[in-house]
Structures are given as structure tokens and as C-alpha cells.
Amino acid sequence: MLSGKRILLILGGGIAAFKCLDLIRRLRERGADVTPVMTRAAEQFVTPLSVSALAGEEVHRDLFDLTKEAEMGHIQLSRSADLVVVAPATADLLAKMANGLAGDLASTLLMATDTPVMAVPAMNVRMFLHPSTQRNVAQLKADGIEMVGPVEGDMACGEYGPGRMVEVPDILAAIENHFGPKPLSGKRILVTSGPTHEPIDPVRYIANRSSGAQGTALGEALRNLGADVVFVTGPADVAPPSGVSVVQVQTAQQMLEAVQASLPCDAAVFAAAVADWRVLTQSHSKIKKQNGALPVLEFAENPDILATISHMSEGRPGLVVGFAAETDDVLAHAQAKRARKGCDWIVANDVSPETGIMGGHENAVSLLSDAGVEDWPRMDKADVAQRLAERIATALAAT
Ligand code: CTP
């Protein structure tokens, strides 16, 4: 897949630089040539010797190097690649890139290059959330730099939050995706994901066991095929995909509003496990115990987001896909659901506890459409997502 591709890898000075050793190895396993460049700070985290040994090439480190300029000038170096990857892209490197500074070899190459640039940020959560970094990231995106991550997670500095570098397989996927065919390029696709939380009072809520894993996998697969993904998610366990527009909501009502605000789109996939009911008698203060008397909760039905969008008379997405989570008579219930809700396709799955599907890594689904029922074998949720994304690409190409 990456055979013959030339990657100029610029390593910034962050603890995540150690992951780039593995990245170099895997890029080369896939047939890519890796030309490494290190900032001075990067050398504090990994040694130039390790980087060069894995890359099979010498490391470029100095801007003013007479010998190297005689062999290959820095301008030529900046243009010798098919893709420039900056990983870890530290706050300092992002700031230099966003503001056109060129005081060392790495930043000069980034200024001088005319090839696409992918930045893989990694830094402390406060540094990432700092308004200046956020400004720089927005500027770089506007400048056409491809941003991969960061994601939320535990950090080497002991804090938690966005700023963690995406894992090496995700960087590889982004690089492969960069060079791969993009059948969904220019298509805007909405995905709902995760559970919703319906408040009982300010400290309690009703939820369900959806982890958001299938929705996130779907968002990633659609993004990898080039779609512009709007990802509307309830409070899920699994982090949303990187490189998509994420809208976080809590309740079904908020999810409906976020979905409506995201239209128009070419296709919409409703993978969220939306709560069917909300508590009508929601209390604005914490409900207290009352000498053994039990609270009585009154419910109201939530709006059906999938049905609302499927039945739109104007501005309906060209393809609407729902999921049917069932515990018995899966196909019969899913057929009925498809007809009732008015969606084009239903992805039916059996979520009985013994299947381990809800909250697990695998899924066994059937795809119901006008063409009939297709049973897919049990597979990883990422593979279900990939297959579904490819089917969506085929369907949209035919319209
Ligand atoms: N869905 C939705 N809004 C709701 C409920 C469900 O958009 N208020 C969507 C889900 O995202 C999914 C599909 O509808 O794509 C089916 O969800 P499911 O929970 O299986 O069905 P229900 O509507 O809850 O129907 P039932 O109670 O009969 O199982």
C-alpha cells in the first residue's frame, strides 16, 4: 500500500517521540522510504542513532550543515517526499508552523515544502487546550494541514484529557488513507453514536450499555474513505474518531437538535442507542429519601430521531441508515422497524447479553434493504464499519 512512497518524518521533542520508532519500522515494513528529521528537543527523547538505524537513512538535524547542503540542500530535502509527517507535533512546532517561523531545520523544511503535510499533535492537555494552541490548530487546518488527533487519554505527565498522540496503527491508517482512493470525498455524512443520558435529577440519570464502539468505528471508516463526517455522540465510553466534527450531547432531545442542525448531508447513519423515554418529572434539585416512601417517576416518550429524519419531506439525506438492536426475533423486528421508521437500510443486530455484542469488540449483523436481507458473519466492529462504509460509498456513487 505504501510501496515506493517517500515520507519525510519530522520528529518533535515530546515523550511520544518514542512511538515514532515503531512508526518508522512499520512504515518501512509497508514499503515506504522514511527520511527522518529531528529537532534538538526530539534528541532529548530518542537518540538519532536509533532513528537512523530503524529508518536505514541518516537523520537530518542541522539547518546550517555545509556537507549536507552540498549533497542535498534543505529546500530539495523538503520537496523530496510524497508526504511530510510531523510526529509528535509539539505545541512549539505547531506554533512555528502556524506562524511561519523558520529558525531551525524542521521549521524551515515545513515552510519550504510544497508537498502535503500531516501533523500528529502530542502535548500536555493544558497546552493543547490553551487558546494559542487552539488558534494555531485552527489556522493550520485552514492552511490545509491534515491533523491526526490528538485523542483523550492518560498522559505521561499524569494528567488526563485531549493531547495524547494517536496510536501508531492510527497514524499508519491516516497515512495509508492519505494515499488511498477516496470514494466518499466531498460527501457529508452524519453519524449518531453512543447512549443518551436522561436526567432524573441533577445527580442521577437513566442510561444504557452502549459503549459507542460501533459508532466510532463507523465514523473512522467513513472518514478514511474521504467523507466529511459530522459525529453526534452521547456520553460514550469509546472516544470519538479524530479528524471528524464532533458534537457532544447528553439527551435524546439534544441529539435530535444537533442532528437537525447538521443537515443537509448526503447520508446519515443512526448508530446511537437513544433512550426511548425521558423522565417527565425531572427534579431540579436532588431527590431526597423520604422515610421509606418511594419516588414515582413519570416518563415521556423521546422523539425518534431516525424516524423524524427519514420522514422529512424536504432536505432528507439521500441515504438513511438505522440500526436495530434486538434481543429476540431479530429479523422480524428489524423488518418492521425499517418499515415503521422509513429508513432505507437497517443494520440489525442481536444484543442479547449472551452475544456479548453490546459493549464488546465484535458484531454480527444483517443488512436489510430493498434488495433483501444479507447476513454478515460475526466480525470485529471495525470490519463491520469498513464494510458498511464501502456499501454507503457504492450507494452514493450510484446516485
Ligand atoms: N433511534 C433514534 N431515536 C430514538 C430511538 C431510536 O434515532 N428515540 C434510532 C437508533 O439510533 C437506531 C434505530 O432508531 O438506528 C433503532 O433503535 P432501537 O433502539 O433498536 O429501536 P427503538 O426505536 O428503541 O424500537 P423498539 O423499542 O421497538 O426496540
Fold blueprint:
Blueprint: E1 6-11, H1 19-29, E2 33-38, H2 48-55, H3 66-71, H4 74-79, E3 83-89, H5 91-99, H6 105-112, E4 117-121, H7 125-129, H8 131-142, E5 146-147, E6 151-154, E7 160-164, H9 168-179, E8 188-193, E9 198-201, E10 204-206, H10 213-224, E11 228-233, E12 245-248, H11 252-262, E13 267-270, E14 277-279, E15 299-301, H12 305-310, E16 319-326, H13 330-341, E17 345-350, E18 362-363, E19 365-369, E20 372-375, E21 379-380, H14 381-397
Parallel strand pairs: 1-2, 1-3, 3-4, 4-5, 8-11, 8-13, 11-12, 13-16, 16-17
Antiparallel strand pairs: 6-7, 9-10, 14-15, 17-19, 18-21, 19-20
Helix pairs in contact: 1-2, 1-9, 5-8, 10-14
The chain binds cytidine-5'-triphosphate.
Characterization of this structure:
The chain contains 14 helices and 21 strands. The strands form six sheets. Strands 12-11-8-13-16-17-19-20 form an eight-stranded mixed sheet, sandwiched between helices. A five-stranded parallel sheet has the order 2-1-3-4-5, with helices on both faces. A two-stranded antiparallel sheet has the order 6-7. It has two domains: 6-179, Rossmann fold, CATH 3.40.50; 188-397, 3-Layer(aba) Sandwich (Rossmann fold), CATH 3.40.50. The chain is globular and about 80 Å long. With 399 residues, it is α/β, with parallel strands linked by helices. Cytidine-5'-triphosphate binds at residues 192, 252, 270, 272, 274, 276, 302, 304-306, 322-325, 337.
